[in-house]
């Protein structure tokens, strides 16, 4: 059962297994990946990530609600993969505020919702119920605003303003989600900006969270740049930015 994604080079430039937290200097990677301890740890992580428990000496998948004869065979099955795809789609659509179980050193069978600060059963039905609950919708509506340049309007509780699109809209949960999730113009503009600054050591945190801020910060050049596609692109392609190490 050789899986190389757990083999990393640590800060001391030593080869180690991230899963087992074992330095591999004096042993081959292949031998470690095939050893009993590593395989046991790998199986434990698979069970956590796929919500499989042992019940009466038998494996039981809480997502599919079936007993298992073959763990790997079930996890790779059409039924299980289909449900996991739907679960991951919910997590992605919700904005990554839901954390699926994944860490063998913090074993838990529930999904953690970071914005509600609570746990949800690790199942498709319970996750769907949670993301459509009034409490989660309210929490998500508040959480997405700083990531999308959306601000309250001074003197009004009824309106919001989107800095990215330079438009006002009504302060209703459904309309916030419609603008953030479905408005193509909003997503295109924000995606272009994020795509331009990726890997360029340019931050737009203040731009997105401060209603009066209109600049991005280029930490590479130690200078501010007007936060729009044209100016950012011009700065990134400029000699000053390009020549900075």
Structural account:
The protein is an alpha+beta fold and 245 residues long. It folds into two domains: 35-137, no CATH class; 145-243, no CATH class. The chain has eleven helices and 15 strands. Strands 1-2-3 form a three-stranded antiparallel β-sheet, with no helix packed on it. Strands 4-5-6 form a three-stranded antiparallel β-sheet. A hairpin with a 5-residue loop joins strand 1 (7-9) and strand 2 (15-17). The protein starts with 6 loop residues before the first strand and ends with a helix.
- The overall pLDDT average reads 90
How far apart, in Å, are the first and last alpha carbons?
A: 42 Å
| Domain tally | 2
- Apparent shape: flat
Low-confidence stretches: none
Strand proportion, as a percent range, falls in 15-25%
- Taking all Cα atoms into account, the compactness measure Rg is 23 Å
Number of strands: 15
Helix content: 40-55%
What class do helices, strands and sheet pairing give? alpha+beta
The quaternary state of the protein chains shown equals single chain
């Amino acid at each position: 059962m050789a899986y190389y994604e757990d083999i990393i080079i640590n800060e001391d430039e030593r080869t180690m297994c991230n899963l087992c937290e074992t330095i591999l200097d004096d042993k081959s990677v292949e031998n470690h990946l095939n050893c009993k301890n590593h395989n046991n740890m790998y199986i434990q992580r698979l069970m956590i990530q796929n919500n499989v428990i042992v019940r009466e000496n038998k494996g039981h998948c809480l997502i599919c609600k079936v007993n298992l004869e073959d763990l790997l065979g079930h996890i790779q099955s059409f039924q299980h993969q289909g449900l996991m795809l739907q679960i991951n789609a919910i997590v992605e659509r919700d904005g990554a505020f839901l954390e699926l179980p994944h860490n063998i050193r913090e074993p838990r069978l529930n999904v953690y919702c970071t914005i509600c600060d609570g746990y949800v059963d690790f199942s498709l039905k319970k996750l769907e119920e949670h993301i459509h609950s009034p409490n989660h919708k309210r929490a998500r509506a508040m959480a997405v605003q700083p990531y999308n340049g959306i601000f309250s309007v001074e003197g009004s509780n009824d309106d919001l303003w989107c800095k990215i699109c330079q438009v006002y809209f009504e302060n209703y949960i459904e309309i916030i989600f419609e603008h953030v999730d479905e408005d193509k113009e909003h997503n295109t503009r924000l995606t272009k900006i994020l795509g331009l600054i990726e890997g360029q050591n340019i931050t737009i945190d203040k731009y997105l969270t401060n209603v009066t801020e209109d600049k991005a910060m280029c930490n590479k050049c130690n200078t501010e740049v007007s936060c729009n596609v044209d100016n950012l692109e011009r700065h990134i392609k400029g000699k000053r930015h390009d020549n900075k190490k």
